[in-house]
Design goal:
single chain, 253 residues, alpha+beta, Structural Genomics Hypothetical 15.5 Kd Protein In mrcA-pckA Intergenic Region, Chain A, nine-stranded mixed β-sheet, four-stranded antiparallel β-sheet, elongated, binds uracil
Length: 253
């Protein structure tokens, strides 16, 4: 799913109430800019996020973008990487500009990822502290032992970071499938918690962050803008919503 695009001349013609032929001289005279750059091409693609000016007059103001994306397995949760494809490769190049991730998923995890170019929203997202609940469907190799429920609820000591994890929910849905609920995002947290029981995680899918559920209409790799209400709810989520790497490598592995 992509954000709706328009041609610049169509946009100007509709916005100014003039025909497309009358748009040409405005462009030729260098009177129109898109995102701060003088635009001369009639067919330049523009979206709702483009800031478009005629002389000093703002015809359309670029507004902050908030997106939900269904992360497929195999892409890095990062904005760039020299060797591997990132989730941003799912968006056309002009829509990637300025986007950040609010929280991460490991490379082979799937599910709900939030993106925005609003730094108020994503800027604090590395905070590992207590916060918004996130839920994951987790498939593991071996049947989950009942003692794991209490161990997740009690929290676990992670010597690498010298922290004790906060209480986490573990609901056993099937012998090898559980719903895990966290209020923090430690590096590989769920894998490491199941690792204590020598039970490797085979699949990990984030279904919810706070009140925001992954839209079931989105297939892996698809994304859509958040509605205004969703974005407001996400602003609260993002203040606490990341899965930071203590070694600060910048990407889930
Ligand atoms: N915990 C993990 O181990 N991986 C994720 O992607 C998210 C939480």
């Amino acid at each position: 799913m992509s954000l709706e695009r328009n041609r610049l001349d169509r946009f100007l013609s509709a916005r100014l109430g003039i025909n497309r032929r009358a748009v040409k001289p405005l462009l030729a005279a260098g009177r129109v800019s898109v995102d701060g750059v003088t635009a001369r091409d009639c067919d330049l693609p523009v979206t709702a996020f483009s800031t478009i000016r005629l002389d000093a007059e703002v015809l359309q103001q670029r507004t902050a973008r908030y997106l939900m994306l269904h992360k497929p397995a195999g892409l890095l949760s990062a904005t760039s990487d020299p060797r591997q494809n990132t989730v941003l490769s799912l968006l056309p190049a002009d829509e990637r500009v300025g986007l950040h991730l609010a929280g991460r998923l490991d490379k082979f995890s799937t599910g709900l990822l939030l993106l925005s170019d609003d730094s108020r929203w994503t800027g604090t997202s590395a905070a590992p502290g207590a916060g918004i609940e996130k839920s994951y469907l987790v498939g593991v190799r071996d049947p989950i032992v009942p003692e794991a429920v209490d161990a997740f609820a009690a929290g676990m000591y992670f010597p690498f970071e010298d922290i004790h994890t906060q209480p986490a929910g573990l609901e056993i849905l099937e012998p090898c499938l559980a719903r895990v609920t966290l209020r923090e995002g430690r590096y590989h947290q769920i894998k490491r918690m199941f690792g204590r029981f020598r039970n490797p995680v085979l699949s990990l899918h984030r279904e919810r962050i706070g009140d925001l559920r992954l839209d079931p209409a989105l297939s892996p790799g698809q994304y859509r803008p958040l509605t205004t209400e969703e974005a407001q709810s996400a602003v609260q989520c993002a203040a606490v919503g990341a899965c930071p790497d203590p070694k600060a490598t910048g990407a889930g592995a």
